[in-house]
Design brief:
The chain is an alpha/beta fold. Helix content is 38%, strand content 19%. The chain starts with a strand and ends with a helix.
Length: 604
């Protein structure tokens, strides 16, 4: 078996510099070369996992097939690389210390003093090596390259044990199998108007002082930086100029792999890690990504979607929902305009407390073409979500409810159609008159970590608009919730027009609800956003976007097929070229001859 290759991605100067997208882009480039890739995200916090985090801490909690609650960067990896990761692909300080302490309690260390070095650092290295070999594709082929993203910033005290572990690790796996890529910020102060390299120099110096020498320095900047700056970084940071990769802010993240590839990343990794990639790459290398990036840039028609949520102050709280909406919008050939509406601002109490905010929120809702009501926990904002559901149902506005969104739509229907004014969720009011939403039987109060219905589960669909969108009767989607629709009310709700067309294997848990007389009033208990991919959008999200554009009926009548230029699976290279030229004709007839010639010649 050939040796596993490792690419460690670290960050400097500030957190949130884009390590996740860059790590994903490394994987995308290598996968386009025919190399199977896996990813590991290291989070230095002491929590065992991300399950108990507030969305305001690190953004959304991403859920995996096996029920692992992990950092949202693993969502980036899955979407970019189209792989299925596992809970062990997310390493935290808490997991490492828990493992070491459990070993100590069992006597595995034979009475020795347990220390950070070697016991914690050895445990980190063993974990990485073990997880790197786990297959992440349906074919169950072991990966050849493992991309490891170290969260936080070099110099953070909580990340020191991981940095030390990788200092040792580079010798453990040998130089030709280990590469370090350091992502740093090149600020451009308005007062001077020129890029400053000193923060990057300091960050690289600190990394080298800790025993890791970066092989690649990826410079993030607001605007493109010139060759002189690249040369300066090369001189002061002890790397060759071709090892300095510049990544400025781009129109979409789909350009990042293309920009990295254009700066020689394939050639460098091929030589540095001895990957045996055939060079030069064919002219149509990464063509699907090029087509996708161009399509995103050239979208003209717009669709306005309102997101009614509880955590709208931090957009990362709904990262996967936003991505799923973008994927569906791209497939429908339109540009997404997403407006975040704080659910509390739609409530009647806000009209009294702050009428300006109240009317602004309702104005934003009324301007939308479609509405999405995503998940959440706790009682804050639930009445605002219920108000939004009622407005969408009564005005025939397309709506998709997810998790808590389903529960809000059912409570609203019970109150305003069945006349059960005391209808509520026991999460909000345990003593409510009509317990429409109740806590799950397997939920054990007290221990919040890992007590929910988590991971991929089967849902059995009845014939409906949802089964047509999925093109199947049995689907598998990921779940993350504690509360369910009370089975005792199902018959009454269905008799009044709220049809439950998706249930679990026991037929007692309600998974999908809709109103047949509505253009698109669909709500689901699962989280379809987690399985959405750039070239394969989630069916419920695609349904919402198409309904918002007034194209859903036409789409369904054609057997749920998009026009050829929107399809991800193109029959041949020639078809892709002709479609690309056709789209360019639509964009600018004057440039079509030049652009068409460039594409045919493989020039980008």
């Amino acid at each position: 078996m050939p040796d596993m290759k490792y690419i460690l991605v670290t960050g400097g100067v500030i957190s949130g510099v884009g390590k996740g997208v860059i790590a994903s882009s490394f994987g995308t480039i290598l996968k386009s070369c025919g190399i199977d890739v896996t990813s590991i995200k290291i989070d230095p916090y002491i929590n065992i996992d991300a399950g108990t985090f507030s969305p305001y801490e690190h953004g959304e909690v991403y859920v995996l097939d096996d029920g692992g609650e992990v950092d949202l960067d693993l969502g980036n990896y899955e979407r970019f690389l189209d792989i299925t990761l596992h809970r062990d692909n997310n390493i935290t300080t808490g997991k490492i210390y828990q493992q070491v302490i459990e070993r100590e309690r069992r006597g595995d260390y034979l009475g020795k003093t347990v220390q950070v070095i070697p016991h914690i650092t050895d445990s980190i290295q063993e974990w990485v090596q073990r997880v790197a070999h786990i297959p992440v594709t349906p074919e169950n082929i072991p990966p050849k390259v493992c991309i490891v993203e170290l969260g936080g910033t070099i110099g953070d005290i909580e990340g020191m044990s991981f940095v030390e572990a990788f200092r040792q690790f580079q010798f453990r796996v040998k130089r030709e199998n280990f590469c370090c890529a350091h992502v740093s910020l090149i600020p451009m102060p308005r007062s001077t108007g020129e890029p400053k390299t000193k923060p990057t120099q300091s960050s690289v110096r600190e990394l080298r002082g800790l025993g890791l020498s970066p092989d690649l320095i990826l410079c993030r900047s607001e605007k493109p930086i010139n060759h002189n700056v690249k040369e300066k970084i090369s001189n002061f940071c002890h790397v060759a100029p071709e090892q300095v990769i510049c990544i400025h802010d781009l129109t979409s993240v789909y350009h990042v792999p293309l920009l990295m590839e254009a700066q020689g990343v394939v050639q460098y990794l091929n030589e540095r890690l001895q990957l045996n990639i055939a060079l030069p790459r064919p002219s149509r290398f990464m063509q699907k990504w090029r087509n996708l990036a161009k399509r995103v840039d050239n979208l003209r028609k717009e669709v306005n979607i309102a997101l009614v949520g509880k955590y709208t102050k931090l957009e990362d709280s709904y990262a996967s929902v936003t991505k799923a909406l973008q994927h569906a919008s791209i497939a429908a050939c339109c540009k997404l305009n997403l407006t975040y509406i704080e659910a509390v601002n739609l409530e009647k109490q806000t009209k009294i407390d702050d009428p300006v905010v109240y009317h602004k929120a309702w104005q934003d809702l009324c301007k939308s073409d479609g509405v999405i009501v995503p998940g959440g926990f706790g009682q804050r904002g639930i009445e605002g979500k219920i108000e939004a559901c009622q407005w969408c149902r009564e005005t025939q506005k397309p709506m998709l409810g997810i998790c808590l969104g389903l529960q809000a739509s059912v409570i609203e229907f019970a109150r305003n159609v069945l006349g059960l004014k005391g209808a509520n969720s026991t999460e909000v009011n345990p003593e409510c008159e009509d317990k429409i939403v109740i806590d799950m039987p397997e939920h054990h109060p007290g221990n919040l970590g890992g007590t929910m219905r988590l991971g991929k589960r089967k849902t059995y669909l009845e014939p409906s608009i949802v089964s047509k969108l999925y093109k199947k009767d049995v689907i598998e989607e990921r779940h993350r919730h504690r509360y369910e629709v009370n089975p005792e009310y199902i018959e009454r709700l269905q008799a009044a027009g709220l049809r439950f067309v998706g249930r679990d294997s026991t037929r007692t848990r309600m998974e999908v609800a809709l109103v047949d007389s509505h253009p698109y009033y669909v709500s689901v208990q699962f989280h379809p956003e987690y399985l959405s991919r750039p070239l394969s959008p989630s069916p419920p999200f695609l349904g919402l976007i198409l309904a918002s554009l007034g194209k859903l009926k036409n789409y369904l009548s054609k057997g749920c097929r998009l026009s050829p230029r929107n399809q991800s699976d193109v029959s041949s290279d020639e078809d892709e070229i002709s479609e690309e030229i056709s789209s360019l004709i639509l964009i600018d007839e004057k440039k079509v001859v030049q652009n068409g010639t460039d594409i045919l010649n493989g020039v980008h």
